[in-house]
Design brief:
The structure holds two protein chains of two kinds. By secondary structure, chain A is of the alpha+beta class. Helix content of chain A is about 25%, strand content about 40%. Chain A has one domain: Alpha-D-Glucose-1,6-Bisphosphate, Chain A, domain 4, CATH 3.30.530.20. Chain B has a three-stranded antiparallel sheet with strand order 1-3-2. The chains are: A alpha+beta, B alpha+beta.
Amino acid sequence: MAVTSNGTATVTLPTDEQILITRDFDAPKHLVYKAWTTPELVKRWWNAKRGDVTNAEIDLRVGGRWRYVMVTDDGFEVGFHGEYREIVPNERIVSTEVYEGMPEGEAVNTLTLTEEDGRTTLTVLVQHTSKEHRDAHIDSGMEAGMQDAMDLLEQVASSLR
Amino acid sequence: MARATTTSDAFNAVAEPRRRQILDVLAGGERPVNDLVASLGLAQPQVSKHLRVLREVGAVYVRGEGRQRLYRLNGQALKPIHDWVKSYERSWSERFTRLDVVLEELKKEEGDGGDE
């Protein structure tokens, strides 16, 4: 089956307050945008290997709110929410993001999609207000990453056969 | 225990942009202090101060050769920082692997639904 990804995401730390995530997809940008902004679809990929997304609310308009809730495999509920600040369909979304476990650390995320020859480069720039919040954000990903990433990849790979 | 201490210290040491610049230069190989001073465009005392911090956390090694002091990177000490970002990266990679599957389906649906 032709799931041709270029594998891993690239994460860099351009400044002390930023995280930049980059990844190419073998799909046109309007489909990446659709997968990114449609609740039923978000529920299928946003959880990574961390648990189930039990709630994905998306009010896709400037000033509209979004909220995702995930229940981790050990029963822990984690919520994230924010507000849309700027929307250019199929190209760019600027939104705020708050991890409800650490509500003082609001970040501003800028999603950018650029297409070339039917492939899309996705970038997410996460702008925190301080290095402490940025680092705490990465720590949260680290814990998730500890949970056997390889298992998930295997599951996905075998489900494609 | 020792590792935890080293880790947090290395994190702090590398938090300073000038010190990251020094590490970038040293990533290209061993350098005498004078080279670092020239590359950074800082005064020698400032560079020496940063080098001392980096040396204390084990991020760089120093050795004397004649009258020169040569500095080189110790990748081992920086590995925890590298790993830290890598784990975050892996969790996004997991998401995107799932997103790939969703996108394949969307492409197929669009194909089935007629030409775009």
